[in-house]
Amino acid sequence: MSKTVSDNAAFGANSPFFRIIKEGLEGLVDGEDYFDLLAEDVVFEYVISVPGYPRRVEGRQNIVDLYSDYGNYMKLDSADNLCVHRDPETSVVVLEYEVHGTSVQTGRPYDNRFVSIAAIKDRKVTHWRDYLDPVAVFDASGWPQGRR
Asked: pTM for the whole thing?
């Protein structure tokens, strides 16, 4: 099995995000890196997100492309508070976790909480539904201008 992205990419194997997702899905999926855990035809839905972000993305390569410039916006230093809920009958996993870092553009702290719901088939994630705190993104990015 080969890696989809290098270890040092914004979402490569060295990313705190990748490590916490892999920990939460341990024993259920196969893959060398975060993107390799995904089926080729994976569907991502961003249910609660930020303005301008896509609501739905289909296909692993499109997810790779979407995240390719993540490092230009946020630098993640850690991820923690993982809580995993598994339903073996439906092959669905709910992950609750937090990420911590800094906005590259403003230098402000970035602390966000996520709930991600993953459907798994044949040891790959086939569907991913993501919920995040958009206010945490706004605060880190300084949007809107003058927000304290």
From this structure: 0.86
